[in-house]
């Protein structure tokens, strides 16, 4: 495997940058920032991991294991506390969803979805990218970002496999278009799921955290009030993201093959069972928050629902004469085990930031923005949380930042709702790194989206998101 110069430099730059952070912030050395000993070491590890993730200095999953080794040694958490993050509910949500994805592909359900999509929007690649983005955006306003991505990913993978050279296109042009389309359609699903989640108060956890904080402090923030900002933001950002994808990943020189007559075969028993399990899971994810009191088991989580579906698919016989299960256990070798570690590492660092007080220190520093013009202050808050959420849980960041920003809002000359909504939306816009959001991690796990391209495209979408958040929050907040 070829190692680039950036990767070689990154291997040294990561720990050196981390050590520099310690020398500046450690209370017994530099003392800058007023951090505790534990917070200083956690900051150093955050910097180290961020550099390695950005440079791909080592495999992303290897970087994600650094907290297990270093946090206990640095006194920033016990081994049990750190290791627990690698068995978080969201990791089981990943695993169960991945098993469902195997079943959908194995039994032809994904192919049927693709047929319906192509009938609806034709075979023009650019239009398909736009439709995938907009459909993901619409769904994500009402079901979790993760559930939306799981729902749309089979369609994206299916249409990516139907590329053929356009009439008159050269081999080089067609190959470039095929590669670009495969990446663009997957990123459209991930980015659409994230963008749509910002539209409604139930779209993603940061929105609910900000809304609950505002209601508890006497500020009205219901579904309609959030949508007043969320929908204009979403309707602005989704077309911009489509334009970025098609600009940086042009899909010229290709077309999409229409389904042939032989592909219109009926689903077998296994296909119908898989579809039923999948629809049942999506229904539970979509509606469990409004079930009557007593209907929902206290311990039911989205991850538990996904694992229940996985157990069912791994246990039920396929009944197709093969003697195998719906998903044979051997097929789980295809699951993205490295991505599970990747996200676990991000959660471990997020927890460490909270335990050590680093998150509170970062949030408190925002009060120093009071001398800046309001648009710049709002943009910096959104950008700061946006950058932080690339390597830490957006839910944890929002839970930490919202109360702090709400308290300092008067010093900044801004209302409490403006700051709370800015924090939630800024923390939700993580488009650059696989660890940034579950949708990013899921599409990266397919092995078809190079991290370098995700960074390049995601950086531009991040900038647009910060500008759009700043505009709409100040105009409508």
Plain-language structure description:
This protein is an all-alpha fold and 477 residues long. Among the domains are: 1-79, no CATH class; 89-334, no CATH class. It has 21 helices and two strands. The protein has helices at residues 5-25, 37-55, 60-64, 66-73, 79-84, 89-106, 109-121, 125-140, 145-160, 171-197, 205-216, 223-248, 269-287, 302-315, 337-356, 358-364, 374-389, 394-412, 416-428, 438-444, 451-476; strands at 163-165, 254-256. The chain has a two-stranded antiparallel sheet with strand order 1-2. Helix 17 runs antiparallel to helix 18.
Task: Give the helix/strand layout.
Layout (H helix, E strand, L loop, with lengths): L4 H21 L11 H19 L4 H5 L1 H8 L5 H6 L4 H18 L2 H13 L3 H16 L4 H16 L2 E3 L5 H27 L7 H12 L6 H26 L5 E3 L12 H19 L14 H14 L21 H20 L1 H7 L9 H16 L4 H19 L3 H13 L9 H7 L6 H26 L1
Antiparallel strand pairs: 1-2
